[in-house]
Please model this.
Amino acid sequence: MTIKDSQIMQTALTKLFPFALMFSLYVFSYGGVLPGGGFQAGVVIGTLVVIIEMALERKLYRDSAFERIEIAGVALLMLLLAAGLIISGYPFGGLYRFKGAADPFANIMIWALSFGIFLEVAGSMVLIFRGFLFWESEDQLYFIIPGIQQKSGAEADTIKKKRELAGITKAAAVLLGISLVLVIIFLPPLETVPVSEAETVRETAQAYGIRNMVSAVYLGPRAADTFLEVLVVVLTVFGIKAVRGHA
Amino acid sequence: MSLGIIIIGVFGLVTSDNLIKKIMCLSVIENTIILNFIRTGLREGAQAPILTSPGVFTVDPVPQALMLTAIVIGVCFNALAVACIVRLHQKTGTVLVSEIHEF
Model:
């Protein structure tokens, strides 16, 4: 029996859909004030689409729709990058380089950045999961369970070669472990981040009315990192498509 | 503590034959590193980095923001690795390293 046959699952999922959608939008729009933000909202909405597709066993929208969502998110982020560079001279406007507490540009910027990340992550999540969900027919899924793999005839010399290789690998791993332990023993203890850095973040966050300091960091001083990370997500989607090939 | 978890991950990475299990061990190591980084921002008696009132004593938000990025990168890495393993399984019919003879 699959999820499709279960009346309870079907009803629950279809009734849950609007509430989960609302929760996602709430997490997204309050990202600057409460825990949450573009990433989290995007993941919630992406997994929601995936769960419903698994329950109904059919695609809700075409792949191209989610590709368009993803590309729109990346385009919005690129636009914001360029706009910030032109207006203030810093990528994404720097968010904290402006003078004055009530600058509307910074508030619009943090919302638009979140929205771009939201679109991009939501599209990517669905595409990544679809890469696995609609891979092949269901009888090919047994590989997940270890121990049911197909056995094939093995020649003695290849096994011997593999054993030698495994011995080398184990020796290398032991050496690596010993060096790791030595490094950890003889290295000075981890330095804690100076308090002044956190204080700066707190001051700037307070100046702009951003209460969630984590959002303030990853959309402000580390915005370039966030942008590159979004590009990594896009690359993953393309990579999975490339690996999948014509299967 | 985190050193112990890392050792568990490395041990599993070396000894397991199944590629899926290897990926799981890599995830364990990665999550340990994330925990360790978040620990560096920890301060005694501090609250979550949400400014509910001015002057509230919070933990350091910078490692948390960095690790948020690291978590997303980890998801991407896992997805790509598992996709590669699925392709390998299609090609060779096995996910055990000891049974893969040709590519």
